[in-house]
Amino acid sequence: MTSKWEKLLTATEPQPDSQAILDTALARADSSTSQRFERLLIEQGSKSKRQPRKAPAVSAADYETWTDDVERAMVCVSRQDFGFAGSLLERWLQRVQPRDLDERGLYLYARSLTLCGDMRRLQGTVQDLMTAKGLYADAHSMFIDLGIPRRAAQIELTQAIVAEMSSKLTAAASQYDALAEDKRLSTCDRVRARLWIGTALSKQGCYEPAIGFMRSAAREFENLAEPEDWAVAQQKLALAHRGEGDLTRALHYIETARSAVSPKSPLERIQLDTAHAHILVTDRATRDEGHTLLAGAAATADRYGLRHQLRSIDNIRDNEEYA
Fold it and tell me: In the chain, how long is the greatest CA-to-CA distance?
């Protein structure tokens, strides 16, 4: 590899993983070695990949506006207002090119790509998920190059969610398992990964180990004073107990989830109502009530373009056992 670089010089460029190794070696080098390296760069007229680049197309005021638009887009995505969120982000992604940006601009560009990926993931068609994978991969590469490991790890966690949504449950569980111990992530994100291991296992019918992961995550969310995540854990426990045939416990957990917090977005309401309906339709005595709740959840999902949620609802409806 070194021989290739010496032969081609500026006609070649290290791959991201090789660049990361080189960056680590430089960071660990003593001061005399670092000074020699910088002197050689100057003498050869080359530039370090980390050296800030000029951004003639984006002014300081533009960066402030872009930052504001990213924050506004985050709020819109959380409310499933995909149309306005998309317009806020596309005005920047269509205007600038990464090669023209300095590190601040590249960070905003990567954040914009991530939010575009989130919109696609939440809408959830097969094509949306494929597009989201590409957007996340590009953003992940940029965060790695910028030396922001936490953002990169958060994208890896979201990529595992995409794998789960694409029915790659074994792969998703494996990714969650690795990220549950990844120190690049916050404590709360690592607990979420542990909860989602349980989700992937539950979808594979492995209810007993799934419930173990979910209960552990619920306890940790309680210790972290994260009521919304704790309520989500109760919802997932309800579905796992439904899967193993314990409707009494399933109803207990879903009622706990419903009374713990009020949904703050259409997606949260749909997920909670769909989980509750899934339990109700399992019991012949409450089947009609469950189908009524499913109809309302489907109408909301259709209104906000949440196709993945619609597929989940349709799968419940199409189950002959619940017809």
Answer: 82
- CA torsion, points 160, 310, 271, 207, in degrees to nearest 10? -60
Report angle CA 26, 28, 33 to the nearest 5 degrees.
60
First and final CA of the chain: distance in angstroms? 63
Q: What is the pLDDT of residue 60?
A: 84
pTM of the shown model = 0.79
Number of Cβ within a 10 Å radius of residue 198: 27
- Reduced to 3 states (helix: H, G, I; strand: E, B; else coil), residue 73 is helix
d(CA 180, CA 191): 6
What pLDDT, in 10s, does the model give residues 180-238? 999 999 999 999 999 999 999 999 999 999 999 999 999 999 999 999 999 999 999 99
Q: CA neighbours within 13 Å on the CB side: how many for 253?
A: 24
Contact 203, 173 (CB under 8 A): no
* Distance, C-alpha 189 to centroid of its chain: 10
117-134: pLDDT as tens digits: 999 999 999 999 999 999
